[in-house]
Structures are given as C-alpha cells and as structure tokens.
Amino acid sequence: MSRPISPPPVSGDGGPDLPAYVSNGLIGLRVRCQPLQAGMALVNGYAGEDPERQIEAAAPAPYPLAGDIAIGGVWLSDLPHQASDLEQAYDFSCGELTSRFVFTAQGRRLDCSVLTFASREDPTLVCQEITVEVDGACDVQLRAGIATAGVLGRALRFLRDTPGEAVQHSDGGLLWESAGAICEVGLAYVTELSGGATSEIEPVRPALDATGLITTYGFRARAGTTYRLRQITSLVPSALHTRPAEQATRMAAKARHDGFEAIRAENRLAWDEIWKGRVRLVGAEPRWQALADAAFFYLNSSVHASACSSTSIFGLSIWHDYHYYYGHVMWDIEAFAVPVLTFLQPQAAAALLDYRHRNLDQARANAKLMGRAGAQFPWESSPSRGEEAAPLPGTAAWHEDHASMDVARAFALYADATGDAEFRLEKAWPVLAAVADWIVSRAHRAAEGYEIRASMGIAEREQEVDNAAFSNMAAVVVLRDAIRTGERLGRQINPAWRAIAGNMILPRRGDVVVSHDGYRKNEEKGATPDPLMGLWPFGFELAPHEEQATLRFYLDQADNYLGSPMLSALYGAWAARTGDRALALKLLEEGYAQFETGRFSQILEYRPDRFPEQPRAGPFFANMGGFLSSLLLGFPRLEPDEGAPEGWGRATVVLPRGWEAIEINRLWVRGRPMRLVARDGQVASLTLLEEDFT
Fold first, then answer.
1. Contact between 117 and 100 (Cβ < 8 Å)
2. Model-level pTM?
3. CB count in 10 Å sphere of residue 557
4. What's the half-sphere exposure (Cβ side, CA atoms, 13 Å) at 1?
5. Are 298 and 28 in contact, with CB atoms under 8 Å apart?
6. 161 class by beta-carbon count within 10 Å (0-12 exposed, 13-18 middle, 19+ buried)
7. H or E segment at 307?
8. Distances (CA, A) of 17 to 87, 290, 439, 452
9. Tell me: the pLDDT tens digits for 55-79?
C-alpha cells in the first residue's frame, strides 16, 4: 500500500539546491554534497548578535563534523575540484545521510563513503563515519575535527587533555562564545580509526588554530582494504549547562565508552518508535505518500523533548542566502507544528510549550511595555529569554497581536488532547488567564460590541486595520478556552471575559466574514484567507450557511494567494469542507505539492514558480505543519476537546479525489495509543490500542 519512506538518491553537486538537512531537534546540520567540507550548524538555545541587524538571533556554531583526506600529502580541501561522482542518499527511516564521492590525486583513486546522523537517543551527539578504499598502495591521511573558520564569535578556551587524568578521554574540547557574548556553546569530540594495521597509529592533535580543532591519522593504505574513521561530537549550549564545554567533554567521553555502533542502533530504535505514527494515504498517488513521509520526517527530526528554546520556522536549518527570521520563535510554531506534535511526539510538543511558559514573565513585561495588562507574547521571540527581538524598528511587533492567541490556543489544545491535569493547572491555566486579561485590555467597547483597533491579521500589510477577522475570532476562542478551563479548576472568572467573548465584532459582508473593516478584494494581500484559519484550525464556529459562504468567498480567490507561505497548505482541507473532492485535490497540489524542490523533498517557504525572486528557503515548518495538520485533523474533521476522543469526529470525512482513507496506526491521546481511520464518506474513528509504553 505504501511506497518506501525515503526519497530517491541524488547525484551531482546540487547546483542551487539546499544542502541536506540533518537534525535531532537539539542540533541541526546542513551537510554539503561533499560532506567533509564544513557546512552549517545550529544548536537549540544558542544565540548571538546578528552582524547586520545587531539583534539577538540564532547563531551558527562551529561545525562539529568537519574532515579532510590526503593522498600522498595532497589534501582534498586544497583540490576540491578533484572530488567527483558525488552521490547522496537519505534514509528517512532512521535519519542517516550517506554521501559518496571519488577523490583522485598523485595517480591514485580513493573511493569515499560518509555516513552522517544526529542521535535522537543522545541528543547532544552528532556522528560521522568516513570509509575509504584506494586502488593501489599509497600514503593516506584522514582528518576529523571541529571547524571554526568563518564562524562568528570567539574561542574562550580549548582542551586537548583530560585535566587530572593520565588517560586522554576525548580528542579535544572547545568553549565558544557567540558574537555579542550572548551565549556559549561547548563542543568536544572523540575519534577512532580502524581497518588494516592501523590500531597502533597515534593521531596528531595540534593546538587550536584558525581553522579549528583537528585530529589527523596517517598510514600506508593498501588496495582492497577498507579504512574507517569515526567521529562523535557533543554540542552543549549554555542554556542547558553553565559550563557547557566541560559537559560536552563528559558526553563525548560517554559516547566513546558506549561506542559508535551502539549509538547508531539506539538512534534507529528511536526512529522506529516515531515512525509508528506514520500517516498512510490509502488510494492516493505514491507521490502524496512521499510528500507526507518527508513532511513527517522533517517536522519530527527538528523537535526533541530536550530542546530548551522551542524551534524556529525553519527548524534548526540555516543557509547562507536566507536568515531573515533570525531563528526567532514565532506564532507559526504554535499554530502549525504543536497541534501535530501533540499527537505524534507529545513530549516534544510539551518542550515547545515549556519555552513559552518559562518565559511567561517576559510576555507579561512585554504587555506592560505596550501599556496593557496580562501577557503579550512577542512577535519574534528571542531564543535565550523569550523577549521581543524583531529587527528594528520592529514595525510588525507594533500591531501583530494574534501571536498571543496562537500561543494560548496551543496550550488549550495540548491540555485537551493529553488530558494532563498537572499541565492544565500549572501551565495552561496561567497562560490562558494571562492572555485573556490581555485581550480585555486590548479590546474596546463600541456601540455594536467589542472591537480590536489598529491590529494586523495574518497578512502582514503595510497599514494596520480595525477588527482583523482572525485576531477577533482567535480572541473569542481563547476567551472561551480560558473560561472553561477556569471553571473546571474552580477559579473565579473575570466577567469581562464572557462579555467580550459573547459580543466581539466580526467584519462581515452579508453572510461572509471578511478580513477586516473596510476590506476590499483588490487591496494589498486582499486574497489572504485569514478568516478561514479562524474557522479551522482555530475552531471559531459560524452558522453553517455563514461558514459555507465564507469558505466559497475565499476559495474563489485562491489563485491570487496560492504560492504564499503558511495558509496555502490549508486550502485542500478548506475545499473539502465544501464537499468538493476535485477542488480539494487541486488546491492541495497547488498549495503544497508545488512547494517541493531540490534534493530530499524539502518544502520551500515560497512556491518557486510564483515567487522566483524569493530565496529558496526550507524546510519551512508552517507549510509542512499545515499539510500534516490537514491530514491528521482537517480532512478527518477531528475536533479535540475535553470530551471522549471517540467522539472527536464531528462530520463526515471528505478526502481529495481518488483518496480512500487516511490511516495512522498510533497517535498519543490522553497518554494512551490510539489508531485513526478517516475513510471518505464516513465519520473518522479513534480506537484504543493495546497499552504501549515503549
């Protein structure tokens, strides 16, 4: 029924394609086609000062898996054009990237294979195995280490020995400070050479230089013999340990003790567990299954229960030609990623929300700075402290108010889906109550009810508007979440919450909810379907005839929006709510599938044919999260609430044309495993599986 999980291998140097993205949710790597050349690395919680904007931003760390090869003293790094026959294969089932190439020098040919992965079981570890064979006897040198060239910041210190120990327990450790002295990251690595008569070779480990810390093994290689250099590097941000280099050394030493193969096996087991939640598309063309598998892989690989600073809209990926979100934590994560992860990786979803809860005081301070009560979560939240970090002058942060509602709604959804009573009391309630109080201070009484003036909806226009539909709809949903949560916990409810929730003004044209007061179709970004997001996934209820009228109004304008980020991926599920299966398939194709480009099914922020001037930036989590949300909740018409999960299916399932069913063999609901079957023409079912606490 299902095609292989992994994408097809690729050949060549990739041209304009983004390099492969390898991550475990704490560490993210961009691995080049020739993988020994340093790519780029991000570490969750590690931030520095952006050199252009001079604001806090996620900062590239020293590259932890750099390497090099020499034949007869001629180094690959000096003759990069001598690398040929480049191939890469990415095994999504276990997160392993395999790169192959040929290096020729001094009349000899060396075949090289490089395995790279980031451990999910030991999330501070990234691992690499370099395997080489030569076509004739020659002198070979293999090098591994940590590359610092071109990385902003400075080395505070490095170690080659283990203080107080006669035996050296790692190849070396490095303490690196980010630009602006905002954060530190510790790195430490271990290496091992095997093959032929190499067991007694003593490596050369010089002091830290301008290129980084390196370990070099030299030996006489013979044809027909396979040689392997393995490297394991630990990266620890100061957000998780006040002396991160020392802790990285401890973790690297443990990795040496555990062994490369054991770490690799544990990583595979961890991925086996995650893939139990695979989304299976019965009856769909194989390409849709491939797209679903890729989105599933990238989203799950970019989050981890150990992550301390949520994740960015690009996960832990970055490349030279895009950086404009600066690794900031934005509303897209709560709106598009948390709902899916709540059911697939609830511990990781909890870590994303913990970042917001831990920084609730900063959100309260942000509200005070704006002259408001309660908590206003930043538009662009800094990784280190959760403060507003938008580029100056911060125009979006002046009026983009809906981020607070997106955050609060994610807390309510997680509490309902998991049934976690402690989470509801200790985390969801404080956030919901604080945002509800903020809504009271933000809303104004008018003759027709309550309104929110000078705001901004999902469309980031040049000019703010009154009564942005999505913001007002979201405010009502969050106020009702706060009311029912408070009542369940026996708390006193602010009467203003009920008054505003029951009398919030929505901009309308007859039965249609439009984007804002004074809306015109031909205005800037006039096709943005933000009222539709208020309906789903946010859950604002309209009368059936009003919902259908609003859906059709914006679906008729779809061609003027499709190709833009975020909401494009939701069009298929919206079309399905009108009962039009052919339109659902068409809009899913144009709103999601055509964002795919390059190697390994990366989904871009902008559709390249519609926006050729935009950088090819991805994998973009709002698009992937929107697609997965459609598959898990939108098409199945699941509406999680405090009631029994078996009753969450609220309407007959309408799937894209040709699709028969969506099946997920294991979702986590109320702490127990459940199976989802959403068959076209039927109501979706959630059924309890046998207890599975693996």
1. no
2. 0.97
3. 15
4. 11
5. no
6. middle
7. none
8. 14, 19, 44, 43
9. 999 999 999 999 999 999 999 999 9
